[in-house]
Specification:
Transcription Regulator spoIIAA, alpha/beta, about 40% helix, five-stranded mixed sheet, globular, Ribonuclease Z, 5 strands, about 110 residues, single chain
């Protein structure tokens, strides 16, 4: 797990761990990340399945309930299959854009 911080955003990049292991690692160290928007990059996987993305659902829901953004980045996921409850985008720039839009929505009270 590679962790990088950019202002109020924490970027977690997966190295060799399975998605399930990555989710467990994030949950165990969650106190370090709970005050930041989270971007999870799954760039080391050859293919990202719906089942793997769903592993992040509980973590995403908890994080978003605290008024923080949670975005998964993978260019290898079929975006048409992804559930509406979790944000999955193909590029890191789109993740930043989503966080910016969600910040604006929170400021406006949506």
């Amino acid at each position: 797990m590679i962790i990088d911080r950019d202002g109020n955003i924490t970027i977690i990049a997966q190295e060799k761990a399975s998605v399930k292991t990555l989710v467990n690692n994030i949950e165990q160290a969650y106190d370090k990340y709970k005050n930041y928007h989270l971007i999870v990059r799954l760039s080391s996987l050859d293919k990202v399945t719906l089942e793997e993305i769903v592993e992040f659902l509980r973590l995403s829901n908890n994080h978003r309930s605290e008024k923080k953004s949670f975005v998964v980045v993978s260019e290898k996921a079929n975006l048409d299959e992804m559930p509406d409850e979790i944000v999955v985008v193909p590029t890191i720039q789109e993740a930043y854009d989503i966080i910016e839009m969600e910040d604006i929505e929170r400021d406006l009270g949506f």
